Structures are given as C-alpha cells and as structure tokens.
Amino acid sequence: MKTLNILSGGAAQGLVRSLAPAFEAETGLGIAGDFGAVGAMADRLRAGVATDIVILTAALIATLADEGLVLRSSIADIGRVETALAVRAGDPLARAEDPASLRTVLLAADAIFVPDTKASTAGIHVAKVLAQLGITDAVADRLKIFPNGATAMRHLAESRDKRPIGCTQSTEIISTPGVVLSGTLPPGCALATIYAAAVATQASAAPQAQRLIALLTSTDASGLRSQAGFVSNTTS
C-alpha cells in the first residue's frame, strides 16, 4: 500500500490513528512515519527525510514555514494540549492544586517518567518546573527520561516502582493503555500548547496531505479531538 509520510509530535499520535481508517478508505493511502519529540521531528524534516505532512507545535510550524520547509498557506491549528500528570491504572490519583502541592507530589514519587527534557515540549517544561520548584537535584536520580511522552508512558504502565508518576502531554497519557490521566499541572506550573499541521514543501502527496489536515481539523472530528485530549483554541 502507498503511504502518506508524516512527521509528528507524539501529542497527535492518538488522534491521527483514530482518523487513519477513514483517511485510508477515502484516499487509498496508509499513514506512515514518526511520532516523537517535536524538536527531533523538526530536525528530521530539516535533514531531508521524505515527508508529506508535519504536525508539531504551532510555534515550530511557523519557524519551519520561515525556513521554507512547510507551505505557509496550508497551516491549520488542531487545538491545545495541556501538560499533565499520569499514574498507573489502579494507583491512587496524584493531584496538585498549586505549586506547593505539586512539589509534594513529585517529591513523594520514587520514579518520575518524562519525555526528552531537551527536545520535547513537555520534557522541556518539566525541567523548567523542577527548577522552579527547587527540586531538580532532589529528584535527579528518580527521573526516567525517554525519547518521547508515549514511550515514557508505556514504561510507566510497566513500572514496578512503588510510587511512580509520569508527566507529559495529556494526549500521550490518554492514548496509552495502563496509565491514567491524573490531572493537569496547577496554575503557575501549567502549560497548554497549540498544535498545528502543515503540508511539507517537498511533499510527494500534497493533495492527500491537505485532505488529512482537513479531516484533523474538521467539525466532524471535534469529538475525536476531545477524546484524544485536544482542547479547542477558542476555549478560555
């Protein structure tokens, strides 16, 4: 089967998978490519990896448009994704109402599963929050860092630690069996990131890439976006 090549942040993996059957039925194309840390995906595009469609943070998509790597006219916002806490299914929920309680929650964990703290949206933010809370050194040996949030959540689900916790984007938590969304980060530590899609300048299947963007952003898919963890940009 011919495929549409995609480079995407892990935040959109669940949503893309949910729309893949409809897209394949309409276009005859499967969807292939990589989902991972947004910085790494952007670098793959810059390196010349064959790509038809890119789904990354809106800010990074704008940068890639400035670099001539995606078509500015094709850019469309998908929605906002919040960074959140996760626990294993069956474990008590870990909630944080303010920075002080988040500090307590993180210090109580014996393992903290996170995505790449240098290349992923959520991982970079986690590193900032740990510094903000003054616990970077205190939890350094408990951090379990993985290339992307989905991988981190899979390892959290399989963890044999006594009190593990995860922190990544809500979409990656929701789409991973064995873990549960435990609540978003509290005010003062929160992060909501807008994701957007665009057709790659060198796309070999540009019309089909544009069609997938239309499906991802359509009114008909609003329920799927919500289930996947995306929040409408118009929501205050």
Secondary structure layout plus pairing:
Blueprint: E1 3-9, H1 13-27, E2 30-36, H2 38-46, E3 53-57, H3 58-66, E4 76-88, H4 99-108, E5 111-115, H5 121-133, H6 136-139, E6 143-146, H7 149-158, E7 164-169, H8 170-174, E8 179-184, E9 192-199, H9 206-217, H10 222-228
Parallel strand pairs: 1-2, 1-3, 5-6, 5-7
Antiparallel strand pairs: 3-9, 4-7, 4-8, 4-9
Write up what this structure looks like.
The chain is of the alpha/beta class and 236 residues long. It has helices at 13-27, 38-46, 58-66, 99-108, 121-133, 136-139, 149-158, 170-174, 206-217, 222-228; strands at residues 3-9, 30-36, 53-57, 76-88, 111-115, 143-146, 164-169, 179-184, 192-199. Strands 1, 2, 3, 4, 5, 6, 7, 8 and 9 form a 9-stranded mixed beta sheet that branches. α1 packs across α9 (206-217) and α1 (13-27) packs antiparallel against α10. The mean pLDDT is 95.
